[in-house]
Design brief:
By secondary structure, this protein is mostly beta strands. It contains three helices and 42 strands. Strand 38 and strand 39 form a beta hairpin.
Length: 763
């Protein structure tokens, strides 16, 4: 998943946070581990979102959160069809785990960890479960699943998921930030003495998901890595969206100016049918086939803060008072870029896999045929507003409707077409002897895409770029060349490869060595052709290597690993602000490399009966390589960036994770604390945020065999502050950063203190 908000955002990161956990689990069984999953500790414990799995990065720029259900991706691409609008970790699932890096690479072609889930199918006896979740902000979430036996080898299952989540602050134009409905129905036939089964599953989702539009807030940047709240605004609990959710935008396809509401622009729908077949012969040979087709409407809405400036009455801004009268405004102004991303999607997936288990190992061979068809546009518009809770839009003569300007000038996108991936993969897990286990595999993938976009090149190979009113059919005149914007064809065929090898050697029964290496090659996805310039289509290489030692006994598992990961030819796009005119924003595409060296030590201990402790320490140094780009602005000025050698934005050098838990009879008390050291907030490393803790804790009580209760606290320490990157600060240099101490800025923030309650009923 690349995101198409063209500010460079690196997602929530834990950069190698579970690398050692994976190796530790491998080492525990040392040669007897055939599982495709690693330790899935706290995969759904998310400090950034209340409704999806945490993103577990491995030191690379953020992308899609890989989530699979029944062996197939939940969505082909999460922009514009966000995973959280079509999938939730609810009672409709019988299992949620975390796939190993090597397993993800071999079976999907992606690098990183993937959430692995399976639908709850029919059961021999009728059973049901009801899960209820709420928090002190008013969230109401309930999901229900029933399953049973219909007789003569037929089984059924059905589930309903309903979420009404207002978020951590109220919106004036919508009741909920997340209103999601998901319905599933499954029918299964088991035959030949349960050697085989065939399931058909229908899945419908309907979601208005505004969370992406509500993740920014203003603050005062002190200059020492800390921030202060602006007067009258509370980070995380005050709304930074206007009271009015109406938007004007220009349709990229037709040039027509249209009106919408943010809640309508965030609508997602999915109609999915899937078939799953499995058969196992007496000789241990197993064959599975998973296939699905999804017809979806995908939408992502972003309201990205850009520049903040002080203006006087001579700038022509006006503010409408409570009686509807316009009065001159002078004060601080926030420029806001609105991105309304939407696409009509048809996607189909087919995976067939043949495997066989032996006493000393397992081999398998598999086939993927994945097809993705989309008609997509991101319509962008600008507006300005005051900086306060529930900000007021400012009015200015010459703006459309008095409020909106620069339609499709900044980050507008367009493409339509298809992408197809046909891949053959195999793997072999082999216990050579009692001391040595090896695992190796490969994937060979043919990637084809064909489509149209709106990237226009002039005679001298210069890029036309976006301009106000950009759309298909718009007239242009630049550098003495005139014409109209017309769809441009693109067509590519590529060959991608994955190779992986892992080794575990038991020197003694308790001590040994472990290591693995994965090499992945990729090429741009079809979404990379959305901006105003063509992407770098060179091969992307991603090597990942880890090596270390482990020690295990009856109460302790300790693993220490050194790791390296790199990635060449990352495609991204930056929104750069003209230093001479903060309302002049232009997109700058770039291609760059990145590398991360790390050391990770992981400890899992059972110190006494009922008490478990997990401790994880990671040191890393992720840096940019060949990171150079620039852009020419409308006034003829040029600004560039050379970030080669800089630390990657938002990724800390030190991470610590501490997870103690104590179980006594029917009670379980647990804590989870994650420390993130200093992170840089812009690409030039001019701004930074001090280290922070993300803290969780809870208690679970099993009342009886039918009822369990739970309470969870998010952000126990009640930390407030900013995180991530600072909007509009990409061009600010280190030597000039002190000039901005005490200035008002905007960015993302830490999820506020939240108390959650849950009840789980089984029958």
């Amino acid at each position: 998943m690349k995101r198409s908000v063209l500010t460079f955002i690196i997602g929530t990161t834990l950069a190698s946070a579970v690398c050692a956990q994976e190796a530790a689990k491998d080492a525990i069984q040392a040669g007897k581990e055939n599982s495709k999953e690693t330790n899935s500790r706290n995969v759904m414990l998310n400090a950034s979102s209340a409704n999806g799995p945490r993103e577990i990065s491995i030191g690379l720029p953020g992308g899609d959160v890989n989530v699979l259900e029944n062996g197939l991706p939940v969505v082909y691409s999460s922009n514009p069809h966000n995973v959280n609008t079509h999938w939730r970790g609810d009672g409709s699932l019988s299992h949620i785990g975390l796939m190993k890096i090597s397993e993800t690479a071999i079976t999907t072609g992606n690098i990183g960890y993937a959430v692995n889930s399976f639908t709850q199918l029919g059961t021999d006896k009728f059973q049901g479960k009801v899960n209820y979740n709420t928090n002190h902000f008013g969230k109401q979430q309930v999901d229900i699943n029933i399953s049973g036996n219909a007789g003569k080898g037929w089984y059924y299952s059905g589930s309903i998921y309903q979420a009404f989540d207002p978020g951590t602050f109220k919106l004036r134009f919508a009741t909920d930030q997340d209103r999601t409905q998901i319905y599933k129905a499954a029918l299964t036939k088991r035959y030949n003495q349960n050697r085989g089964e065939l399931s058909v599953i229908y899945h419908y989702s309907n979601s208005r998901f505004l969370s992406n539009a509500a993740t920014s807030a203003p603050f005062i940047y002190v200059g020492d890595g800390s921030v202060k709240e602006i007067p009258g605004f509370k980070l995380g609990t005050s709304s930074y969206l206007p009271t009015d959710g109406n938007m004007l935008y220009m349709d990229m396809r037709t040039g027509e100016v249209k009106k919408t509401k943010l809640s309508d622009a965030s609508l997602n729908r999915g109609n999915q049918i899937s078939i799953h077949h499995a058969y196992k012969w007496d000789n241990g040979l197993k064959w599975i086939v998973n296939a699905k087709y999804d017809h979806a409407l995908g939408s992502c809405v972003y309201q990205t803060p850009m520049s903040i400036s002080q203006v006087g009455a001579e700038n022509g801004y006006q503010l409408r008072d409570t009686e509807g009268n316009l009065k001159a405004y002078n004060g601080i102004v926030q420029s806001r870029m609105s991105c309304l991303n939407r696409g009509d999607i048809d996607e189909s997936f087919l995976t067939s896999e043949l495997s066989r288990e032996y006493a000393n190992g397992t081999w398998r061979i598999g086939l993927n045929q994945w097809h993705y068809k989309i008609d997509y546009a991101s319509n962008t518009t600008m507006y300005d507003h005051t900086i306060e809770e529930y900000p007021q839009r400012l009015v200015k003569e010459g703006y459309t409707g008095g409020v909106f300007y620069d339609f499709n000038k900044n980050a507008s996108e367009y493409y339509k077409g298809y992408e197809n991936k046909l891949a053959l993969y195999f793997s072999h897990d082999w216990d050579i002897d009692e001391k040595l286990n090896v695992y190796y595999g490969a994937r060979f993938e043919y990637q084809k895409m064909h489509g149209q976009n709106a990237a226009i090149y002039l005679r001298n190979d210069s890029v036309l770029g976006r301009f106000p009113g950009y759309h298909l059919g718009a007239a242009y005149d630049k550098n003495g060349q005139s014409g109209t914007v017309a769809p441009q064809d693109f067509d590519y065929n590529w060959f991608n490869q994955v190779y992986t090898f892992a080794l575990t050697y038991k020197l003694t029964k308790k001590f040994g060595f472990t290591g693995d290496f994965t090499y992945n090659t990729q090429h741009p996805a079809i979404s990379s052709f959305a901006p105003s310039e063509l992407p770098n289509t060179d091969k992307v290489s991603i090597p990942l290597g880890r090596a270390g030692v482990y020690f295990n006994n009856s109460w302790l598992s300790l693993t220490s690993l050194f790791s390296y990961i790199g990635k060449t030819n990352n495609n991204s796009t930056l929104n750069l602000i003209n230093p001479n005119d903060k309302r002049d924003i232009n997109a700058a595409p770039l291609s760059y490399d990145i590398k991360t060296l790390g050391w990770t030590t992981d400890l899992i201990a059972n110190l006494f009966k009922g008490f478990d402790l997990h401790f994880l320490f990671t040191y890393q140094n992720p840096t940019y390589k060949k990171y150079e780009t620039g852009v020419s602005f409308s006034d003829g000025s040029y600004s560039g960036i050379n970030a080669t050698g800089n630390i990657v934005t938002e990724i800390p050098k030190i991470l610590i994770e501490i997870d103690p838990s104590y179980t006594y009879k029917d009670f379980r008390i647990w804590l989870s604390a994650r420390y993130f050291s200093k992170t840089y907030a812009n690409i030039e490393n001019a701004y930074y945020f001090n280290g922070r803790w993300e803290t969780f804790g809870g208690v679970n009580y099993k009342v009886n065999k039918y009822l369990s209760l739970g309470a969870t606290v998010v952000n126990i320490l009640n930390q407030t502050g900013a995180r991530g990157s600072i909007s509009g600060a990409e061009l600010d240099k280190k030597e000039d950063a002190y000039k901005h101490n005490g200035e008002w800025m905007a960015g993302s923030y830490i999820r506020p203190f939240t108390v959650e309650f849950s009840a789980n009923i089984t029958f």
